[in-house]
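Everyone, study these two lines:
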Amino acid sequence: MKSCFGYVRVSTLKQGEGVSLEAQKDAIERFAAQNDITITKWFQEKQTAAKRGRPVFTNMLATLKRRGADGVIMHRIDRSARNFFDWAKLGELADLGIEVHFASESLDFSSRGGRLAANVQMAVAEDYCRNLSIEAKKGLLGRMKQGIYPFNAPIGYLNNGSGQLKTHDPKRAPLIRRAFELYDAGEHSINSLVPEMTRLGLRSRAGRPISRRCIENILQNPFYCGLIRMKRSGEVFPGAHEPIISAELFEAVQRRKSGKAQKKSTFHNYTYRGLFRCEVCRGAMTPEKQKGHVYYRCHSPECPTTGVREEALETKIEAILNTLRLSDEHIAVLGARVDELCARGADPETARLYAMQLKQIDERLEKLDDAAIDQIIDKETHGRRKQALLLERTKIKDAQERISNLRRQPNMLRGFFERLKTLAEHYRFAPPSEKRQITELTTSNRLVNRKNVLVEPSKWLLACQNALAVPCGGPDGCTSRKRSELRDQQLEALSELIDLNIVERLESKSQVDKGLYETH
């Protein structure tokens, strides 16, 4: 009695949970009983035969070459191989005198006619598999062009079934946003961000602590700002899912990761590190601690600027914030004007400007695709440039949405003015991380000249001051009509400059931390 191996296969692990494997075994056992063959060992595999190098199949071939059995029985030809490489290996066995049987195929593989018939059926199976792959890729590409990500959702999103948009994971999405913000603020390197996010409660889908590789993948994945990027092809598509972070934040993180921003320090997170420069030589003011005080020094040779204490920087910033004094009368007047402004709807000039910018980007995207089709640029360059253009497009869309939200929600602007009312006092008693955040948002051109600290208010803060001066200022030479027109202009400018990012980021960091912990 001859001895043979039995080989059964399904294409996926999920198919292995069905009855296919057992049905194949039954057919092989019946064939063996009819032909007086003993099955000495079973080889079972749950992997597609379209790709060559299946481990179980390769191991079985090697064992047969060592004469571990007289031959092998498989259910059908398409269960053995769907690529010509593995099929050729099977043919080598037959040439060595090792028997190859197919339980459901009435052909003699050892004869010329039987081998020819088997080769034809194998070619049909390979063509079917290739066509199925093409159609599957076409379907996936169609989904991605619709803005739907057809694969497993990244951490921070939830899967909602085939053909459905990914939605925010209420537990992990805030933590993903915090990871981007912490890295962008320069408070952490990737190595130090791993234990920090673990402390905050970020875990993998399996509930395990996240790894360094996981954090790297998160920070470089544009899916979180609304884009879909395919790793293998480099193709980029605008996504229809709701972003977790803004395009500006994603770009800032990429600049920092590529070394185009200030390097991270994980040892001493000084409050104003990287925010001040020397006015004389434009060198960075480097913080260092001496005798219990933090000094910011210019280390450029022969520069007359030596250093200044951190307290002097705080005094100057507080003085800038103290120039914005909002009384209850200010809040009332600005609130009434904001209601009028929001009731008028969107500014047509601003809408035309955004529409023109979007049209220009769309034209550039079309030219870029044409260049790729004509093979003027390679796929990698095409993907990189397309991602940059789509990020720019997303930023414009975000700006439109922020302005639209502000105009639809006058309460948000009124609440913003209420926060500005106590901003200087809040800064005075805030922890270092909040002081840094307020400084970044409210000041610009931060310089040190010898012992003098020079700081200017940011554009939106100036707009606030101007908006206050017009409706609430003292008597001047303007007519009431001119005052009304100027007041409208200032509030228009204020609504353009104050976006949701600034409004949200001026919230207390401790409140954000509190919100994060409440989600667990």
Residues 263-267, 471-480, 507-520 have pLDDT under 50 and may be disordered. The first strand starts at residue 2 and ends at 10. Residues 112-145 form the longest helix (34 residues). The chain is about 55% helix and 15% strand.
